[in-house]
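Case study 2.
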Amino acid sequence: MKRKTITKKRSVCVLAAGFFACAALLNPFAAGSEKVLADEQVPSIYTNEMVPAAQASQRPIAVMMPTDKKAQPSYGIGNAKILYEIMEEGEMSRQMAIIDNWQGLDRIGNIRSCRDYYISLATEWDPILVHVGGVYYMKDRISAPDINNLSGTREYGTGGEAPGSGYFFRVSDRKAPHNAYISSEGITNACSELGYSLSVRPEYYNASHFLFAEGVNSLEQYAAAVPGNTIDLSNIFTYTKSSFTYNPETGLYAKNLHGGPQTDGLTGQQLTFANVIIQNTKWSKRDAKGYLAFQTIDSTGDGYYFTRGRGIHITWKKTSDYSPTKYYDDNGNEIQLNTGKTYIGVAQEGRAVSYS
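Prediction:
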């Protein structure tokens, strides 16, 4: 694989502190938690699985990845603990992968442009946002001082800086725009150069995200539960026709894209999830080019939660960029997710999920 560095100008800032500096202070599980073990294993806020405390205190990356058929497979996407899929202009969806264990990945991507509504969802995880440009609608938000981003080109397309662009590279086995990548080493070096903290920032970080079940949540307690062995999103994402198939032997949903398994280019393995959330969201078309807007901060949204071959109707609310999105059953109780990875499909209100 031949690499070609993207040679956009880098923004230079004060060098970051050491990678694990103040990790004990920033570790949200370090004090007052009965679940902290002697060997410093703590429950992941993303999956509820036990992970090293150092990993728990590390900021995740939020990587923009395409769904284009020619761009598959993505590299490193299998490490995503949370995977968002949202529609963009032209009836094309895009993915945002929230990856906490990104250290050691030598090829992450390919990486594509961002939109402003992804930023609203990304910030609730306090990540390093990794993208290649964007559109002018995100100008004010991407330029704000609280946003730490790496961009392979001008950060909002028509202008802006290109922070960390010198650490992106292109490969020769794919044609542009499907060939831009970054490595974990490149991310670490770029963040050091730009002065970005690699530990979660206490002034922004919120550890209260998902409520996980103390065992297995089969949804059998819900009389109105619907069948969820297959989940068809082709009405929502008309180009990719994303779908899921439940495997009762593993208790996981296998993700399909373009009628076949969606895999990680690094491992060749199909993406699987313990939890599938469909988040119906108010939206509008902004202009003649078809750019979309999504109301990601709301208190009146609904959707579906699928796990273990069943599904229930849910509602959701999000009060600010850095506040977590919360999901509730029809009794008003916060839903209890099963331990493992979660897929969140942000659907345009009016486009229905099919299930059986």
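The longest strand covers residues 298-307.
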